[in-house]
């Protein structure tokens, strides 16, 4: 069984970490699937997804490390086409997908785990595909 | 339902990004699966997979950042065994799998998203496993 | 069909790479699933999962690169809350999940591929969720 939908997320800054855990958890419950997995997939090349603790300082730290490892406008070839190569490359390091377990009808995360959409070239309207797959109870 | 197959890819350089979007998309259509996901998995420890825009400059930029973050022959222990530690570690940063949505019988990517096999220790013949899972229409 | 279980792993050092390939492979055989995928998911925010060659030098190299890219106590905001920001951010770079193919009733990895839990803030008792999904033969 597959339950398929999308989330629309309006980001509000050039760089931002948006916690979408509650929205994904709600879709998992809505799906009626008891046991399986959920695929969370961003459809953009300048966003990524990551899982970690929801703590404001840590969210800034993750973004600070991305900007340090892949600094904007550091002589990239793609900046001649579009001035956002660093946004693309940071998104590659994070990856576009999270695959998470669904157990007993709910999103089966650890106590401190939250799902974040990492905006790296906003603000923009973003679309995230969510597919819940597995068995009904 | 599961549709399972492999892609054989001959790379032509030591470092290379090979766009395999059309081939994966063709397998998704062949599978007859209407709604679900596709797992794309490289079976090697010196390649990775990533998703991003198909633009020649950006492909070089991604590879340039990998080489800057994990430079070859920078005193790695594994280089005493086999002279390619950086290739392995760059592959770890990218990851071996992409899990992508399948909707209405096709690979459901955003407009700018393309699937790349990142060769980090070529040229070689590489095998990528593709599994499409989900519901028929 | 979904086969769902967990692995308990006691790590023995602050930073460690624990090879869990045999344990995951055993669960795949136990599942009775012939064709599909296995999701391996760590439920913690200071561990990650990666796939690579089992060679002691390389395991140290991967950990050395993580520590170089995200050095501990480098002025992170999260260190004011809890003294382990680098452990969190290194885990984000690795990611919490691996999705791997299952073919002919076994874990379908390449010859040199092994599954590692990367402990970044141990020693601790860790829980990894394993879900095998697919078709029986």
Short description:
Three copies of one chain form a homotrimer. Chain A has helices at 21-31, 56-69, 85-94, and strands at 2-10, 16-19, 33-42, 47-52, 97-103, 106-107, 114-119, 125-136.
Any overview of this molecule?
Three copies of one chain form a homotrimer. Chain A is of the alpha+beta class and 137 residues long. Chain A has a single domain (2-136), classed as Jelly Rolls (Sandwich), CATH 2.60.120. Chain A is 26% helix and 41% strand. Chain A has helices at residues 21-31, 56-69, 85-94, and strands spanning 2-10, 16-19, 33-42, 47-52, 97-103, 106-107, 114-119, 125-136. The radius of gyration of chain A is 16 Å and the shape is elongated. Chain A starts with a strand and ends with a strand. The model of chain A has no long low-confidence stretch (mean pLDDT 98).
Tell me the name of the CATH homologous superfamily of chain A: YjbQ-like
Helix content of chain A: 25-40%
Secondary-structure content class of chain A: alpha+beta
Sequence of strands across the biggest β-sheet of chain A:
1-8-3-5-6
What's the number of extended β-strand segments of chain A? 8
What fold name stands as the CATH topology of chain A?
A: Jelly Rolls
Mean pLDDT of chain A: 98
Count of individual domains of chain A: 1
Number of helices of chain A: 3
Rg calc of chain A:
16 Å
CATH architecture of chain A: Sandwich
- Multimeric state: homotrimer
Name the helix and strand elements of chain A from N-terminus to C-terminus, one letter apiece.
EEHEEHHEEEE
CATH class value of chain A: Mainly Beta
Largest interface: A-B, 30 and 34 residues
- Give the strand content of chain A: 35-45%
Weakly predicted, low-confidence segments of chain A? none
Shape of chain A: elongated
Compute the separation of the termini of chain A in Å: 11 Å
Report on the biggest sheet of chain A.
Answer: 5 strands, antiparallel
């Amino acid at each position: 069984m597959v339950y398929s939908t999308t989330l629309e997320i309006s980001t509000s800054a050039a760089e931002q970490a948006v916690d979408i855990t509650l929205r994904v958890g709600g879709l998992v419950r809505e799906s009626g699937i008891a046991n399986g997995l959920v695929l969370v997939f961003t459809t953009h090349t300048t966003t990524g997804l990551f899982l970690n603790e929801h703590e404001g300082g840590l969210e800034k730290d993750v973004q600070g490390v991305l900007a340090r490892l892949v600094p904007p406008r550091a002589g990239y070839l793609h900046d001649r086409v579009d001035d956002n190569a660093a946004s693309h490359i940071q998104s590659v390091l994070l990856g576009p997908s999270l695959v998470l377990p669904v157990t007993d009808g709910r999103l089966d995360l650890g106590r401190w785990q939250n799902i974040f959409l990492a905006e790296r070239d906003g603000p923009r309207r973003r679309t995230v595909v969510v597919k819940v797959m597995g068995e009904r109870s």
